[in-house]
Amino acid sequence: MKNTIKELKTFLVLWSTQSLSSLGSSMTNFALTLWLYEKTGSALQTALLSICTYAPYVAMSIFAGALSDRWDKKKVMLICDLFAACCSIAVLFLLKTDRLVPWHMYLLNAINGLMNTVQQPASDVAATLITPQKHYQKTSGLRSLSNSIVTILNPMLATSLYAFAGIEAVIYVDLATFALAFWVLLVFIRIPPIMRKEEAEGESFLSAAGSGLKYLREQPLILLLILFLAGVNFVASAFDAVLPALVLPSPNGGSTVLGLVSSFAGFATLAGSLAATLLPAPANRIRVIYLTMLISLGTENFLLAFARQPFFWCLGQVIGWLPVPLMSANLDVILRSTIPASLQGRVYSCRNTLQFFTIPLGLLFGGFMVDQVCEPFMAAVPSTSLAAALFGTGKGSGAALMMFLLGVLGTAVCLIFRKLLRKYSTNEQAVG
Prior knowledge:
Blueprint: H1 2-7, H2 9-40, H3 43-70, H4 73-96, H5 102-129, H6 136-165, H7 167-188, H8 198-201, H9 205-218, H10 220-247, H11 255-278, H12 285-306, H13 310-321, H14 324-338, H15 341-356, H16 358-380, H17 386-391, H18 397-421
């Protein structure tokens, strides 16, 4: 145990301080969402905050990876953190001078999103460079653990601080966590450089950006896993759009219940992260990836489709989210063990674009299907019909029907890719 901690000392210091800074940033984002909704009363204007943050991530990830691989990882992380802090300071200044308007927030969120797009591949590669390969699964589990803790604590801390001290106090906490993380990274963290090949030194920017895609074309297993997760993200994001429409109108639901149900996703992810950290390496990581997603997408969607009580909604969240960190940890080990460190930044960025572009599509699909297809269909069926018996009656029954359809779709995605991935299972020993 002592040897493990010694070998992971640099990672643990960086991970803990960066996680604290991430919590501060998440609290600010949550508080700004509350502030904007209070000022405008518009769900659309509030949603645009997330869109402005996410759009650069999808659009620019490929190019960000090329930048990350060509530049010093530590400098990239420091510069991106500094820009993000300046955005928070700008918000604070505009608040204090009573000049803050929505377009300011959209612009600053877009800048933050762009900085995160550049920083994430640099951070992923840095984690690889400072971690011995035998500890990849443990560190992946720890990163999932911190994400889970942020998911759980962020709304509680941000809401409480916002209510008692106002949004400015939240931003001050964010800046304090940033200052600590920035100082620790600047002074105490040494990230080993990557020895670049001579041909890579003269590589153009566009060629560097395209090399990530070229690598994926030459690695069918990695590309197939990414496409599989793109399908999973489509179903999962559609689920996110449907869940409020299921819980809020229900006689046993409402906003408080929706908050409770959502929190169970964070607790389940936390438990899954601990399991990923503590469990030994599986014999077949590829099988773990598709089986965990089959359990997640199949069981949760079907359970919520037929359930009417908060207990079963919470249980569905636990079943759906508990396997996710196990999938992520095993995928992370395969990627880190297969992709050369000199290419990881641009390959990870290509992965981000291919894997996550389906999220906004899934959100649109889920919302459209509930409003325009499923709810009208359930409103038209007799109360004595089989559909009414299965999915209920009244508003929310269409969302239940959509959950059932997502269960079918999610199961189909997992079974199709299971068949495609099966031939790679015998090569598992090569990835640890």
